[in-house]
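User: Let's play a game. I give you a shape written as tokens, and you guess the letters that built it. Ready? Here's round one.
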């Protein structure tokens, strides 16, 4: 696992893209809907409470940006009413969503994941438990739904160095103080890349 912080009451975990693959596969063993739910959190940065919102009518391809975007009605980190934003979706997730929607014969207004927030959180715990059983790695028992969003944010902010304003827009953070905790320490891979790029002069 990329990193674990258990200094506070709540253990925080950061998963690598390959570890997200393991978790999504484990969830998929209990149904494609579960895998889609985990992709929406770990690949698109949704909160567990936002997973039940999007449907086909919310998904669109932006010719201008050459990207998939989808509407989310999510948490307003400044408080007050829920806030609408456009979230970003990787191409491979959009392909999975289209296949899933066609196979299930869904209408454009049918939510891809029509379950409660507690169910989404439980699915993550159950998938993490399956990975723990396969790998016998105790840290997997601490993985929560928010760790998927945490991993997504840190990967793009720290590893891919996506600018903060873009991440705030697609992730639904209203100000810098809300996103600052996701600016975690870089992984060893990122440190190596940064130092090699900087040359060897002392």
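Assistant: Ready! My guess for every position:
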């Amino acid at each position: 696992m990329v990193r674990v912080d258990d200094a506070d009451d709540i253990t925080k975990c950061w998963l690598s893209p390959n570890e997200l693959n393991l978790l999504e596969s484990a969830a998929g063993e209990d149904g494609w809907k579960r895998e889609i739910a985990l992709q929406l959190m770990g690949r698109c940065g949704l909160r567990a409470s936002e997973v039940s919102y999007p449907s086909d009518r919310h998904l669109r391809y932006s010719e201008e940006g050459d990207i998939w975007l989808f509407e989310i009605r999510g948490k307003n980190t400044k408080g007050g009413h829920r806030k609408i934003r456009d979230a970003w979706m990787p191409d491979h997730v959009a392909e999975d969503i289209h296949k899933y929607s066609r196979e299930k014969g869904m209408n454009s207004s049918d939510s891809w994941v029509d379950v409660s927030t507690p169910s989404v959180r439980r699915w993550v715990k159950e998938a993490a438990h399956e990975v723990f059983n396969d790998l016998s790695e105790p840290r997997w028992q601490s993985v929560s739904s928010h760790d998927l969003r945490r991993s997504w944010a840190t990967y793009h902010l720290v590893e891919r160095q996506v600018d903060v304003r873009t991440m705030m827009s697609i992730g639904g953070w209203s100000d810098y103080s809300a996103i600052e905790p996701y600016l975690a320490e870089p992984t060893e891979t990122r440190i190596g890349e940064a130092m090699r790029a900087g040359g060897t002069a002392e």
